[in-house]
């Protein structure tokens, strides 16, 4: 079932206008309560087939991870959030990663990014042949409210990328 | 994340996600998900708990095979700073 973007856009624009003062005051519970969710009733489904040991996995977090030396941090100021994503290489180390996300406490993830993005565990499972492969580049999003841009632009780009990587399963870790 | 998961599943790629709030997950309706008892920002438990992180991924791999109904959510037993159940 397609998303009803036209109605959402109108409701979202109203929400931005009404919620901006609460957002700026950090009253996040208030603005979440009023957010015009657009999830349809049906649940999409692609049957899972085969064996993990023969398959390619990709990992995505919404924890706001970015590579400090080579990528810009996410926008943590705008009420729209940031609809972009960062491509995180499989070889990344804890010290290379920054976290740009103002809506959760990331002190624990700064000690061990695997609690929001278990890249190193997937690499171990690949070595043990429990999974076939983890793709060479995985992904991070951050805080997003602007579902219109997400649905029309960012997610289609993201899907093109993971399809080009011929992944069998996408593992998603929200924060 | 909920929208991304739904669109990827709709595009023909099986997905599985994590969550920590049953009420939010009921609203988001992910195709397949694991529910944990951990706070925001640490879906895989305590920093450095390698074995727990690994077990949760293995639970997800098992769930891919056993979940056959759209919208299935499996609750995991792990608790913060408590040993894993046998």
Question: Please, could you describe this protein's structure?
Answer:
- The complex is a heterodimer of chains A (175) and B (86).
- With 175 residues, chain A is of the alpha/beta class.
- Chain A folds into two domains: 1-44, no CATH class; 52-173, no CATH class.
- Helices cover 34% and strands 15% of the residues of chain A.
- Chain A contains five helices and seven strands, in the order H-H-E-E-E-E-H-H-E-E-H-E.
- The model of chain A has no long low-confidence stretch (mean pLDDT 95).
- The radius of gyration of chain B is 13 Å and the shape is globular.
- Chain B has three helices and three strands, in the order H-E-H-E-H-E.
- The longest helix of chain B is centred in the last third of the chain and has 17 residues, at 50-66.
- Chain B is 38% helix and 15% strand.
- The chains are: A alpha/beta (175), B alpha/beta (86).
- Chains A and B meet through helix 3, helix 4, helix 5 and strand 7 of A and helix 1, strand 1 and helix 3 of B.
- Strand 7 of chain A pairs parallel with strand 1 (15-19) of chain B.
Number of helices of chain A: 5
What is the domain tally of chain B? Answer: 1
Number of strands of chain B: 3
Structural class computed from helices and strand pairing of chain B: alpha/beta
Largest sheet of chain B: 3 strands, parallel
Q: State the distance separating the first and last CA atoms of chain B.
A: 32 Å
How would you briefly describe this protein structure?
The complex is a heterodimer of chains A (175) and B (86). By secondary structure, chain A is an alpha/beta fold.
What features would you highlight for this structure?
heterodimer, A: 175 residues, alpha/beta, 2 domains, two-stranded antiparallel sheet, 5 helices, globular, B: 86 residues, 3-stranded parallel beta sheet, 3 strands
